[in-house]
């Protein structure tokens, strides 16, 4: 199973890493576009509705380059408190 760790700080994605990043592409769709000057796209939903969004493709790093992915995953599997 490929596992992905996404770190956020201040509501912004800081890093995306995985234990096996070779075949993973991460696409972030952000519907918080009010006041943005960046180019948005219209995203269609299965119910026929649509909404403007910012769409970004992020690279996936090998976790061990900056974060002990195995430790993070073990903690998550044990519960958020690490118990």
Q: What is the structure about, briefly put?
A:
11% of the residues lie in helices and 40% in strands.
Tell me what you see in this structure:
The protein folds into two domains: 1-24 and 60-83, no CATH class; 28-57, no CATH class. Helix content is 11%, strand content 40%. The chain has one helix and six strands; from the N terminus they run E-E-E-E-E-E-H. A three-stranded mixed beta sheet has the order 1-2-6, covered by helices on one side. It has a three-stranded antiparallel beta sheet with strand order 3-5-4, with no helix packed on it. Strand 4 (41-44) and strand 5 form a beta hairpin. The longest helix is centred in the last third of the chain and has 9 residues, at 69-77.
How many distinct beta strands? 6
- The proportion of residues forming helix, as a percent range, comes to 10-25%
**Main beta sheet:** 3 strands, mixed
Whole-number mean pLDDT:
77
Q: Treating each run of at least 4 consecutive H or I residues as one helix, how many helices?
A: 1
What structural category characterises the helix and strand content? Answer: mainly beta
Radius of gyration: 16 Å
CA(first)-CA(last) distance: 23 Å
Shape: elongated
Strands in their spatial order, largest beta sheet = 1-2-6
How many structural units, i.e. domains? 2
Strand content: 35-45%
Low-confidence stretches: none
- The helix/strand series, from N terminus to C terminus, equals EEEEEEH
Secondary-structure blueprint:
Blueprint lengths: L3 E6 L2 E7 L7 E5 L10 E4 L5 E9 L2 E2 L6 H9 L6
Parallel strand pairs: 2-6
Antiparallel strand pairs: 1-2, 3-5, 4-5
């Amino acid at each position: 199973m490929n596992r992905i760790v996404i770190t956020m700080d201040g509501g912004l994605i800081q890093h995306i890493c995985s234990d096996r990043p070779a075949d993973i592409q991460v696409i972030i769709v952000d519907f918080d576009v009010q006041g943005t000057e960046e180019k948005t796209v219209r995203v269609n939903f299965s119910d026929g509705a649509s909404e403007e969004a910012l769409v970004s493709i992020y690279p996936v790093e090998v976790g061990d380059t900056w974060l002990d992915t195995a430790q993070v995953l073990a903690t998550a599997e044990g519960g958020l408190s690490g118990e």
